């Protein structure tokens, strides 16, 4: 039996992330735009889940409907797990993707290839007006390349080489990335949980 897509208001205003989530979820979820008058949500949580929840709760309250959000951290072992929860602002407030990548490569200058291990972790979260939530996590292990390569993707994609791949960075993979990526894993797990809830009603 064909199920009607679950309508969710997207907490992100990032067009790159929104496009990626839409591709990953396909027809399982109908992503609705967040309220245009909603300002930037301050992400001052101590964990990725805290930040995902802050965004989802704010959007859910403003829209009066279930909201979906996520937060992603890049955890680099040689940097003690940094940038972690500060991934998007690693090079400071207002930093561009290129600024963040440049800082990461500077911090890892001289670190041997075998010690450049890292992982991406994404927490995806749905918050509903009744306060109930669905949470899912996705991770992918990899390493940080010594230079940026590839034109696709966004964020740290030009320097992240997944262990399960063929030696290319995420930015070199195009849409193949979605099958491996942390965000893909988190949102597919989230969709399965939402689907399971719908089936049990």
Q: Radius of gyration, rounded?
A: 17 Å
CATH architecture: Alpha-Beta Complex
H/I helix tally: 6
- In total, the number of domains comes to 1
Please state the average pLDDT score: 90
Anisotropy-based shape: globular
- Flag low-confidence runs: none
CATH class: Alpha Beta
| Portion in helices | 25-40%
Intertermini distance: 14 Å
Secondary-structure-derived class: alpha/beta
| Share of residues in strands | 15-25%
CATH fold category name: Maf protein
Main pleated sheet: 7 strands, mixed
SSE sequence, one letter per element: EHEHEEHEEEHHH
Strand elements, count: 7
Task: Please specify the SSE layout and strand pairing.
Blueprint: E1 6-10, H1 15-25, E2 29-32, H2 48-63, E3 67-76, E4 83-84, H3 97-107, E5 117-127, E6 133-144, E7 160-162, H4 170-173, H5 177-180, H6 182-199
Helix pairs in contact: 1-6
């Amino acid at each position: 039996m064909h199920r009607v897509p679950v309508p969710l208001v997207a907490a992100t205003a990032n067009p790159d992330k929104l496009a990626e989530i839409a591709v990953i979820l396909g027809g399982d979820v109908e992503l609705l735009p967040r309220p245009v008058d909603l300002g930037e949500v301050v992400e001052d949580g101590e964990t990725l889940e805290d930040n995902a929840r802050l965004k989802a709760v704010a959007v859910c309250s403003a829209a009066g409907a279930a909201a979906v959000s996520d937060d992603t951290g890049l955890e680099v072992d040689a940097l003690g797990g940094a940038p972690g929860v500060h991934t998007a602002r690693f090079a400071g407030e207002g930093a561009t993707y290129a600024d963040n990548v440049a800082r990461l490569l500077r911090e890892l200058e001289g670190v041997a290839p075998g010690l450049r291990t890292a992982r991406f972790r994404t927490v995806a979260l749905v918050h509903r007006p009744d306060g109930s939530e669905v949470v899912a996590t996705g991770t992918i292990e990899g390493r940080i390349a010594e230079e940026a390569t590839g034109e696709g993707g966004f964020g740290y994609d030009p320097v992240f080489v997944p262990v399960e791949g063929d030696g290319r960075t995420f930015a070199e993979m195009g849409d193949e990335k979605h099958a491996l990526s942390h965000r893909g894993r988190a949102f597919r797990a989230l969709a399965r949980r939402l689907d399971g809830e719908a089936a049990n009603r």
